[in-house]
Amino acid sequence: MRLSRYFLPILKETPREAEIVSHRLMLRAGMIRQQGAGSFSWLPLGKRVLDKVCKIVREEQDRAGALEILMPTIQSADLWRESGRYEAYGKEMLRIKDRHERDMLYGPTNEEMVTEIFRSYVKSYRDLPLNLYHIQWKFRDEVRPRFGVMRSREFLMKDAYSFDLDYDGAKAAYYRMFVSYLRTFTRMGLTAIPMRADTGPIGGDLSHEFIILAETGESQVYCDRAYLEMPVPGADTDFSNDAEIAGVVEQWTTPYAATDEMHDEEAWAKVGEGDQLAARGIEVGHIFHFGEKYSKPMGASVTGPDGKEHFVSMGSYGIGPSRLIAAIIEASHDENGIIWPDSIAPFDAVIINMKTGDAECDRVSEELYAAYQAAGLDVLYDDTDQRAGGKFATADLIGVPQQIIVGPRGVANAEVEVKQRKSGERAVKPIAELLASLEKAA
Amino acid sequence: MRLSRYFLPILKETPREAEIVSHRLMLRAGMIRQQGAGSFSWLPLGKRVLDKVCKIVREEQDRAGALEILMPTIQSADLWRESGRYEAYGKEMLRIKDRHERDMLYGPTNEEMVTEIFRSYVKSYRDLPLNLYHIQWKFRDEVRPRFGVMRSREFLMKDAYSFDLDYDGAKAAYYRMFVSYLRTFTRMGLTAIPMRADTGPIGGDLSHEFIILAETGESQVYCDRAYLEMPVPGADTDFSNDAEIAGVVEQWTTPYAATDEMHDEEAWAKVGEGDQLAARGIEVGHIFHFGEKYSKPMGASVTGPDGKEHFVSMGSYGIGPSRLIAAIIEASHDENGIIWPDSIAPFDAVIINMKTGDAECDRVSEELYAAYQAAGLDVLYDDTDQRAGGKFATADLIGVPQQIIVGPRGVANAEVEVKQRKSGERAVKPIAELLASLEKAA
């Protein structure tokens, strides 16, 4: 993408309304624009990151055997009356009347609707296990939306719902999502630590929040340092092997880890002092087994091998891609801007033409731009007539992992400078060598 | 995808509520489920088609220089008061109050919001032309939603908005979208004929509907047969060459073509009798130049080369991917089910194991399944224990272009049968030959 033809509205001033660094940086980098209280447009740079995040989420859901569907944003109130949540949900639910005065709502979540889909079609245990997910906009009418996309009213959510014959099946489904989440966050360059969460009246121990550590995190968390080095299962993980998956879950739930809410001083004291890690964290995912909470009132049952009807045992599994992006920025930035993990960076590289209009700089920049594209990489080419200092600042701000700096002096020596955004490391590289490596990748 | 692990709820009975063939087939093939009046979930098969349609739309928008953003579904009423449309829009607009009693609405379209984005950032003609698009759910509270996703209340829409300094620039932007639409529909296997549409109080001739012909089409259309053979510009079209693009538009607007509404008997009579084609059509896209209609009341202006402020000249360009899928089915089906064009088929091929449980049939089916996947193709493997007749019916119903039929007799001769869904043509093929061709494609 040529920057001269792109829409990247960088803000020079730090927006006053933004209280946290991710909100400031997303506004300054031209990723989002606020359209109302807790409501944001994703501008081209933001949309690219959102797409990359969703792609990883989707791939890991699919790998774990979940199937993608897409439910509508607007739901009938009648469905929620069946589960008893229509009255119970409170003011966060955006209630709507249509032209015929029928009660509707903007879905804050989809347990009811997906249970309705399930009960309409699935009648036998032979069609289980089943896990349906979708990535769709949700609306929760927060009384005081703030922190940008970290706590907005309209937000994107991946929510998966598992259906099983019994508790054991549901537990295996839960474990698959547990491992899927580990892989999902690792692929985004994050260390997400699963922490036991409150299960409320449901009971049991099948509820985990996935927390990433960030100095600016919203809550206090406590965990064993062992998590920081714990291996995450590879792409060859066999999700059909319940024992293998359970083994991973066991490993990832054995050392101590707890949010403030669930913190247990006694257990904490048993963690070796050198291994104690008390830090700030941000929740980026939540998985939850809730059994028959919806299947029973809504009549979602299957015939079991015993010939009898069984209410299915369900769980739900959420990741908020829009919120996740803010969390990643909280965990990965410096005073100059965002530092994207490679896998979700809006561009893999940015070519900075230090002297647009200079015939040699233009020629080399164009040649590199074409080579990056031919290699199948996402490349931004700063071909604007801004001064070099401004270009460097923009490249740092938007956090592209690699900066290829094309200047008159380097070009005269058939060289460019390659700067890694994360380490700040700069290296002079012969143009021919860079072109050869791109050609090899193509 | 193994059918035994997929969620493909085929209906045996034809749903009574479905009045048109696309609605019937989408329900029967387990593509969609109705969730309320004019509201549908997309089940896994439907979601796959929707994704493929959106991918083509996106690629052709990008190719023509449009930039993807994503605006929220819920909008503030204040924006629509600026343009004067809040009161004018009528009951199709879903009006909402939030917990603070603020007026909001579910966007039926996005002219106001995108104009707000534009005016917030763009100040100079140097940043033009600009075309921003998004693919987002819209809601129009139709008094009587019907025909499935053909006329639903919540529907997916790709809407693009162009911003230019003056009419000439806007016309060039309009032409680019015109050609982009030709390419978009052709890639989906459709012949879409651009027909002049009413421009209302805006005036001028820059409004076209793109119509595909289908016996069950909603409206009467008239056109010259020349359109059926007219070449569509290739992937190498240079969208930065205004003259080249204008040439394509001229070619595609010269022969007679009109909807009933715009039909001109006198001009029609001049079409050679053998060239007259009166048929039924379905609108699948609409492009429209509306000049300063929003930029003026909303104050979206840029400084021109003359140093003066100019209200930008705008156009909008819509395709409804959800509706389009229904239109494609109307145009492409037979008595046995859907016939997907290759480019948007949910799967490229389906492997039909006629005798699941038979060691040789299973072995060959598995081998072919692995080979299709390795070739990067989307393949469905019917590994269920349904009888062969049911499997054939399902494969025809869901319209996958190629059926690979693995039966005991064929396997004994190291052969399978390959059936083309569209032509019905069947050919016996040595397994080794099929494997070799897949390996070559990998």
UniProtKB/TrEMBL annotation, chains A, B:
Transmembrane stretches, start-end: none
Entry keyword annotation includes Transferase: no
Top-level EC class as recorded in UniProt: ligase
Domain Aminoacyl-transfer RNA synthetases class-II family profile residues, every copy: 38-341
Subcellular location: Cytoplasm
Catalytic activity entry: tRNA(Pro) + L-proline + ATP = L-prolyl-tRNA(Pro) + AMP + diphosphate
InterPro entries: aa-tRNA-synt_IIb, aa-tRNA-synth_II, aa-tRNA-synth_II/BPL/LPL, Anticodon-bd, Anticodon-bd_dom_sf, Pro-tRNA-ligase_IIa, Pro-tRNA-synth_IIa_bac-type, Pro-tRNA_synthetase
UniProt keywords, alphabetically: Aminoacyl-tRNA synthetase, ATP-binding, Cytoplasm, Ligase, Nucleotide-binding, Protein biosynthesis
Enzyme Commission numbers on file: 6.1.1.15
Cytoplasm among keywords: yes
Gene Ontology MF: a single term: proline-tRNA ligase activity
Subunit architecture: Homodimer.
Family classification: Belongs to the class-II aminoacyl-tRNA synthetase family. ProS type 2 subfamily.
Protein's job: Catalyzes the attachment of proline to tRNA(Pro) in a two-step reaction: proline is first activated by ATP to form Pro-AMP and then transferred to the acceptor end of tRNA(Pro).
Protein name listed in UniProt: Proline--tRNA ligase
